[in-house]
Each structure stands twice: as C-alpha cells, then as structure tokens.
Specification:
The protein is 28% helix and 33% strand. The chain is built from ten helices and 17 strands. The protein is globular, with a radius of gyration of 22 Å. Its main location: secreted.
C-alpha cells in the first residue's frame, strides 16, 4: 500500500500553518478583503484561546518554563482554516473563539493581512518580523486558489522543495527558519521522509529595547526560589523608577508593566505565594485588558531576573484538548490545498525563544472592587521577582508571547 502523503505544519516564534478552501470561495474572500481593507482593525484578538492553550501547555510541563507565541499559533490556524472544510474548519474557528458566520471568517483573514502589512514596516527601537512560507514538492499540484490566498492574505513565501531527498529538504527549510529568526531557532525540523509533500512555516521574531534600560552596574547575583525549598543564584537586574503597577485581587497577583520603545510592553505577573495555579486558571481576555488599560504609576524598586527560555511543543497532541481534532486525523478535510485524496496533516510543531536582559528583550467581571491600582506614594515599593512568575509581551493590544519562568 502506498504511504499516506503527509503535510507538516511548523510554527516558529515559530508558528506555521496554511490551508485553503474552494477556488470560488477563495477568490470571493480575496475580493472582499480588498474592498474592505480601508479602516479595518488589527488582527482579531483571541486572548481566551491564547490562555486556554497556555493552560494546556503548562499542565503538560508542571514546574517547568513555558514559552510560546499566541500570535504565531493563531495566525497559523487562520491560514489552516483557508484550506479546510466541514468539521475541520468548524473546529478551528470555534477553537479561536469565532462564530461560524462568514463575516467572522473574513474578518479573521483581513485582520491578519493588515497586521502583517503593519509589522513589515521597520521601526528604530523595535524589530518585529512575522511571516509565513510554503515548501511544496513540485510533483504535487497545489491549488492556484490556495497559493493566491496565501500570498495575498498572509504574504507567504513559496519554495519548490524536493522531498524525495529528505536531508536536502530539511536543510532548505531549517536554513530559512534560522535566517528569519536571526539564528535564534535552528534545526526546527528533526525528521522528514519521502512521504512528506509539503511543509508550512509561520515565524515571529521580536527584538526590542526597553524605553529606559536597566544599568548592568546594578545587576547582582541574588536568590531565586524555584520552589519554597529549592533556591538558586541568578543575575538580578534592578532599577528604581515609576512603573505602571497593579494589584489584581481577583486572582491574587501583582502586575508590573515595563515599556519597550515603539508601543510594545512587557507584563510581569507575580502570583502571591502558593497561588500560581490560581493565577493561571484566572487568565482571560478581560483580565489582560484590565492590566493593559491601567494608567496609574507607582515608584518601584524593581528586581527582575535576566532570563533566556525556550520551548518546543507538538501541538497536534495539545490542540485536540481544545476541540481542534479533525485536522490531525485521517478525517481532515484539506481539499482546499490540493486534489490529493489521501493527504493528512502529520504534525504541528511550535518553537519559541525569549531572552530578557538589561537592554531589552529578544524573542515574543473584575471591577474596581476586585481589581485595584496602587497610586504613586512618597515611599518606594520594593517588588522582587524572586520566585516563579508569568510574563507576556504585547504590541499595542496584540499578544505576541506568553510564558512562565520557573527556572531563569
């Protein structure tokens, strides 16, 4: 029996994805996106999906670092939905928190298209690269409608790849990924064989300088409590300044906003002692917006560890827990990509790296009664991130990276 040809979906940050629908529907979307591109909002914000995925990843790695890019994964699933039909498409859209109305689907693709266009504009203090690529075997016919939608809606690069020579194909793809992520993600693909016919890549690269840098002269070795009984020494940055600072009493944590140049922000979330899981369970889009919308500053003596963390995840094992199942089975409807009858999606790999130091980062109903902000006071408040904490990197209102630092 001839082996199943398989399609790999690889996410860099890295995220990957792609798919497409019927030709007529694709052209209809392209036309509508063009007609309605003026004044459209940025990419749809699927914060609840992001936090649900975070909880699923965190539960698979108790006591370990977690880092991924919700933006990359969401964009990848958006591309995947282009080439799907039936229950496969329904599960993806519902997983992203969208209704099944055609207007919602069009809004998804239009939002990502505008986000990609905006991110492609260079800025002095912030490097933010977000893109996609399709590597396809020249012997496999890819629908023109799918290629057109990939290029127009997701600005995807396309490459002819000889999967009959798996080692050469692997090198071609890994070299591309390493280049796009400035060498931060290498050897993403570990194994390919002659049954593979296509690899879809989505990547995100983020590098930003703090609005006000930490002085390396203030960085000292200090104690970080991995657990209440296990302590290690880590390089701890320190700066006294005014920061946006919030106490979220509803889920029992402290939040400090540290701004980058050019509209990006890092959120550092310190759970109360023994309350990490409570904080993780309480994360949702409403909570995130409350944190981002605070406009009150306090004078803080902030201690923050330098850290570099990375994570690689097999999302084909995780996403089914969030209801996105059919895409990874023989029941997947991927007919919008190719007329191959026996195509299946074999894996969806996501890899992320985030580094935080003195200069910046390289990567990545609560009411006033339960959510309060500390106003500026004459005395300085000392905040030490000396035990496991969560963090997020946000550009405007777009959630780029989300993670947990257990071991800096």
């Amino acid at each position: 029996m001839r082996p199943f040809p398989v399609l790999c979906l690889l996410l860099l940050s890295l995220g990957v994805a792609s798919r497409h629908r019927s030709r007529s529907r694709s052209r209809s979307w392209e036309k509508k996106v063009k007609e309605s591109s003026v004044g459209a909002e940025v990419a749809p914000r699927s914060e609840d999906f992001a936090f649900s995925l975070y909880r699923a990843l965190a539960s698979e790695a108790p006591g370990q670092n977690v880092i991924f890019s919700p933006m990359s994964v969401s964009l990848s699933l958006g591309m995947l939905s282009l080439g799907t039909g039936s229950h496969t498409k329904t599960q993806i859209l519902e997983g992203l928190g969208l209704s099944l109305q055609q207007s919602q689907e069009e809004k998804l693709h239009k939002g990502f298209q505008q986000l990609l266009q905006r991110f492609s504009q260079l800025r002095d203090g912030l490097q933010l690269g977000l893109g996609s690529a399709l590597f396809a075997d020249p012997n496999v016919h890819i629908r023109d409608s799918f290629l057109s939608a990939m290029k127009m809606l997701y600005m995807a690069d396309t490459f002819s790849t000889n999967f009959g020579n798996p080692e050469m194909a692997k090198k071609q793809i890994n070299d591309y990924v390493a280049k796009q992520t400035k060498g931060k993600i290498v050897d993403l693909i570990k194994d390919l064989d002659s049954t593979h016919i296509m690899v879809l890549i989505n990547y995100i690269f983020f590098r930003a300088k703090w609005e006000t840098a930490f002085s390396d002269k203030n960085t000292q070795q200090k104690t970080f409590y991995v657990t209440p009984k296990k302590a290690i020494q880590v390089p701890m940055m320190n700066r006294e300044d005014e920061y946006y600072y919030a106490i979220d009493q509803s889920i029992s944590c402290i939040v400090v906003k540290v701004p980058y140049q050019d509209n990006a922000t890092a959120l550092f979330i310190l759970p109360s002692e023994g309350r990490t899981q409570q904080v993780e369970n309480g994360l949702d889009g409403r909570v995130l917006r409350n944190w981002l919308n605070t406009d009150t500053k306090s004078l803080l003596n902030l201690y923050l560890p330098k850290f570099s963390i990375e994570g690689t995840y097999r999302l084909e094992k995780i996403l089914p827990k969030l209801g996105i199942r059919d895409a990874f089975t023989s029941h997947a409807d991927l007919s919008g990509i190719t007329n191959h009858a026996n195509i299946k999606l074999s894996e969806m790999v996501h890899a992320s790296v985030v580094e935080v130091d003195e200069s910046g980062t390289t990567a990545a109903a609560a009411t006033g009664e339960v959510f309060t902000f500390r106003s500026a006071r004459p005395r300085t408040v000392k905040i030490e991130f000396n035990r496991p904490f969560l963090f997020a990197i946000v550009e405007k209102m777009n959630l780029l990276f989300l993670g947990r630092v257990t071991h800096p």
